[in-house]
Structure formats: C-alpha cells, structure tokens
Amino acid sequence: MTMLSSEELEADPEGMSFADRAYLAIRDKLIMLDIRPSEAIVESELAAELQFGRTPVREALKRLEADRLVVSYPRRGTFATGVDVADLRHISQIRVNLEPVASRTAAEAANPGTREQLSRLADDTDALDVAGIDRNELMRWDLKVHRAIYRAAGNPHLEDVLVRYDNLATRIFCLFLDRLPTVAKHVGEHTDLLRAIAAGDGDAAAAIALDHVVGFEESVRAIV
Amino acid sequence: MTLVDHPVDGPWAGSDIGGESNADRAYEVIRERLVMLDIRPGEPINDDRLATELGFGRTPVREAVKRLERDRLVVAYPRRGTFATAVDLTDLADISEIRTQLEPTAAARSARTASAEARARLAVLARGIAAIDDGDDPREVLRRDVYVHREIYRASGNPHLEQILITLDGHATRIWCLFLDRLPDVATHVREHVALLEAIVAGDEVAAAELTLAHVTGFERAIRALL
C-alpha cells in the first residue's frame, strides 16, 4: 500500500510557498524525532540539508514556534521543545475536551461524500499490516486518519487546534513507541472511530474518541 | 519530572524569555486593532503603511501579519493581497463549539490550582469589575473583559489552554465589537465576571465551570437574538 507523505496530507498542496514546504518538512522531522526534543536547531544547516533558502527556513521555524514544536531563546539559539510529564497532561487536557466534539460533529454533520471517504479510510486502516509497517509510515497514517476526521467536522478553528495538538501528541507517541505495547490496539480504535462517524453515530464516535485520548495518556504515563 | 532533558530552564516560557521582540510588539498592536475593529472585517492590510504608522520596521510587521494569518484574523490571497478576515455567523457557532468546552475547563482548573498570588490578583480584579458603571465607555468595558479572561486563562496554569483561549477570545471580542451599538447591556455582561472571579478565588471549581459555561452560551444567545 502506498503511504501519503505529509505534504499530501495537507488540503491544498498546490500553490504552496517555499516557506510552506520548509514548514512541512521540518515539522515532519520534529514529529518523527529526526530532530529530538531539546535538540539545537541551526538554521543554516537545516537550510542546506533541505535545500531551501534561509528565509523560508526562518519563516518555517517561526511558525513551528507558534505550534510549540520549537522554542527560541535570545542569544542562545533555537531548540526543539522539550517534552515532560506536565506537557503530556496539558496536551491531554485539551484533546480530552475537543477530540470527542470533533468526532461527534463529524458523525452528525458530514456530507455523504465525506462519509464514503471515511468509510474507505476505515477499510484501508483495517488492512494495514501493523506489525510489519515502518514506524514513520504508521505515524503518518495515524496523522492522516485524525486529520480526515478534523476536516470532516467542518469547523476550521477546531481543526487548527486539533491538528496542532495531534502533532504534539504524535511526537510523544513516537518517543515511546518502542515501549508501548498497545500500538495495534491504538490503530484498531481508528477503524472503529471512522466507522462510527461514517455511520452517523455521534454518541459512539465521541465515546471512542475519548477512550482513544485517555488510553494514550494512560499508556504513556504507565511507562514513564 | 522530566521525560527528556531540557537544555534550558523552562519548557516553553515563550514570551517571558528575554522580553518581547519588535515582531511580538507589532503583533500585539495590530491584533488589538483587528479585534477592536479599528481595522474592519474585509479591510485591506498594507504592511508598509502599517509599518510607517506604527513606527516598526517592515520585517517585524510582515512577521506579525503572518502570525495573524494563522490566528485567522487576516487572510492572504495570492496576487490580491492581505485582508482582515470577514466575520459571519458560522464563525460564531464554530468558536462557541470550542469555547463551551475549554472555557469551563480553564475556569475549573484555575479554581483548583491557582497560586495564592494569582488568587489575590483575581480578587482585586473582581473588585474593579464590580465598580464598572452602565455609563462607562463600552469599548473600555470590553477591554477590561478581555483582561479578565486573560487573567483567568493564565491562572489555569496550562500554557496551551491559555494560548488557544486567547486566540478564540479575540474572535469572540471581534464579534462583540461588531454588535456593540446594538448590545445595550455590555456592562452587565462583564459584571457577571464578579461571581466567576469570586468562585475561582474561593476554589469552587464546580461553580466556576458552571458560571463560565453560562457566560459563553449567554454570549452566543445575545448575538443570535440580534440577527
């Protein structure tokens, strides 16, 4: 099965500026831990590596700062943000509130075309070889499923927030992936969630989404 | 407890570190103009003119405008330029959908976890709000409303929640401003915060959450009644 790159996950790949492309490439590196939490980021090195100019890279880093994936300190430089238990709690608090709302709204309001698309995504997720799949591809899949749901909820403000927090949560997921016993279960929950939304079952969709977020936080807490 | 070592003291002290940059200041000033409708919805944004008018360089203004684009307060169209975003009824529903979840959470969390200093600050704020008069300038009253909200978000101790709610409160305030001439009871609305602030100071998280939810839904209802 072909996996989508993060670029293709975005709504409108056409008309993307260099800064947009640099943003997506660096964001991917941060989420998938090619750049580790708290690692120093050198603008010129990153520009050379990604073959972008320094201006788009600088602009991308500003955006990533607003996403809280990067932090910059005057005279000390720019770093990937650290991750600690307080962050996990803060991030979960937001997702516990909003993920069920997005799933419920998607279930109740999505149009037939979107339902059809989510239903196909459920089938494709079901067919994934979770044990054999590359870690980064699995994480991209995870991001893709969540984004499809946020988009289906039809609230751009909600989508903005949830995309940002899904990125932060996925980065934490990547940090502990090797030690989490529940990856297959986690992916399986997506299938159920997508099917509940496609079927228009708002209560079930909200309940699964809540379990999914709470389960993630608990499984990470159990190993730290 | 740390999962991954920080090379530096705090995880995300963000704006607190090393003071504000010019881009931060430009962002705050232009944001305030957009929220209070000194720049009207749909109005074009000219970086050069703003830079001259505000006495900033072009680079910080450009950076600020990019940030405002991510806040959905401005929108850029290729070859046409940048504009203040329009405000419509869909926005009101979309923003309320998030605020009804997160505003009570923030208030409850503040009631539960705020430091003694934060509680003292909120108590002072409650006394000031109680003294708002029906005859006060409604725009000034709204500014104080924004300030109260920010202090509550800050007292919640969750910087992520604070950031999201500041962005959303900006959108809500923008809608308020749009209807300010037709909303007679802005002072009453803002004075509702006295009970909320007192609940937080007293550590009553249930009351804080309930009062906040009533406040957010009351806002949406008041606007809808005018349409």
Give a quick rundown of the structure.
Chain A is mainly alpha-helical. Chain A is built from 10 helices and 3 strands; from the N terminus they run ααβααββαααααα. In chain B, strands 1-3-2 form a 3-stranded antiparallel sheet.
Main pleated sheet of chain A: 3 strands, antiparallel
How many separate structural domains of chain B? Answer: 2
Oligomer: heterodimer
Largest interface, C-beta closer than 8 angstroms, per-chain residues: A-B, 41 and 37 residues
Overall average residue pLDDT of chain B: 89
Q: State the CATH topology of the largest domain in chain A.
A: Four Helix Bundle (Hemerythrin (Met), subunit A)
Task: Tell me the strand order in the biggest sheet of chain B.
Answer: 1-3-2
Q: Features of this protein?
A:
heterodimer, A: about 220 residues, mainly alpha, Arc Repressor Mutant, subunit A, Four Helix Bundle (Hemerythrin (Met), subunit A), 3-stranded antiparallel sheet, about 70% helix, disordered N terminus, B: about 230 residues, 10 helices, about 5% strand, globular
